[in-house]
Amino acid sequence: MTNTLARAAARYDLGALHRELVEEHGGEVDDSVPQLAEADPNAFGIALALPDGDVRSVGNARDEFSMQSAVKPFVYALALRDNYDAVHEEVGTEPTGESFDAVLLEEDTGRPPNPMVNAGAIYTANLVEGSDARAKRERILVGLSAFAGRELRVDEGVAEAEQEKGDRNRALAYLMRSMGTLDPGVDEALEVYAAACAVLVDTEVLAVMGATLAFGGRNPRTGEQVVSRRVVTDVLSVMATCGMYDGSGRWLRRVGLPAKSGVAGGLVASVQGVAGIGVYSPPLDPVGNSVRGVRVCERLSADLGLHVFDRELDPS
């Protein structure tokens, strides 16, 4: 069945979908840091990364943007690779029903509720191995580059702005420190997290990163096994239930794919054994998801039959 879906994805008319949804003008560009506020609201790219490593794209698919929260599944994967048991002991996996930057921890444990909200992502970024912030930053960048199949870089201006403007993240870090659940200093923890959010990608790269998860942790372009299948299973599970902010339940019902969005307008989704999906469009809906990104994935899921709970089963 997955081979049939992959062939259908390879033939899908992305150009027609792009022409239709480019007329969608809802949403607002995020202005939490100056670099995000400057984004072109008309920029719109779609990409599919297929099992043979081929990447099909349309629109502004090679415009660079910072990953922001779209980095969270991949940082979670790298933390699991380095400290599997510690991650599961120290970070929850439950949806919150709250904003992604809510100053909120689990009441009974003091743990972050899941790795897809800011508290959990700050924590998991600092469970990646490294003797200090610089070493952790470098290890995360190398790991993200392996997911992407090419060398990535950090936009240092965005990283600095994230640290300067990130009052709620600082509050979360201090709260975790007060609960005894965050070992590094607050400044070090936030430096690592901000740098991860500021990694630059384009829509094609995002699709390849999603495809690496979709194909069991193996990058379809390079053939490198970036993380184990056990790690991928955990990451996709949490993406499916928690990846789309406070719209995750609606997303899973309508689209039925593990996905993660970011406030720069990026969205990455994984279709197991079939493809990785990348979308870039800066205007966001009220919960922080790309308006066009959501519409693209709704259409791809419906047109290709990708919903994880609504695929036709092979009776053989």
What does this molecule look like?
Helices cover 46% and strands 9% of the residues. It is α+β, with helices and mostly antiparallel strands. It has two domains: 2-68 and 201-304, Beta-lactamase; 71-197, Beta-lactamase (3-Layer(aba) Sandwich), CATH 3.40.710. The longest helix is centred in the N-terminal third of the chain and has 19 residues, at 72-90.
Can you say what the CATH homologous superfamily of the largest domain is? DD-peptidase/beta-lactamase superfamily
CATH architecture of the largest domain: 3-Layer(aba) Sandwich
From the spread of the alpha carbons, the general shape counts as: globular
CATH class of the largest domain: Alpha Beta
Q: Give the strand order, joined by hyphens, for the main sheet.
A: 2-1-7-6-5
| C-alpha-based Rg, rounded | 18 Å
Report the mean per-residue pLDDT as an integer: 93
Please trace the helix and strand order, writing H or E for each element: HHHEEEHHHHHHEHHHEEEH
Alpha-beta classification: alpha+beta
- Beta-strand portion reads 5-15%
Given as residue ranges, the uncertain stretches (5+ residues, pLDDT < 50) are none
Distance between the termini: 11 Å
CATH topology of the largest domain: Beta-lactamase
Quantity of strands, as a count: 7
The helix fraction, in percent, is: 40-55%
The number of distinct structural domains comes to: 2
Quick summary:
This protein has 316 residues and is an alpha+beta fold. It has helices spanning 2-11, 14-21, 34-37, 72-90, 118-125, 133-148, 156-165, 167-178, 186-197, 203-214, 229-242, 248-254, 291-304, and strands spanning 45-49, 55-59, 65-66, 200-201, 259-261, 266-271, 275-280.
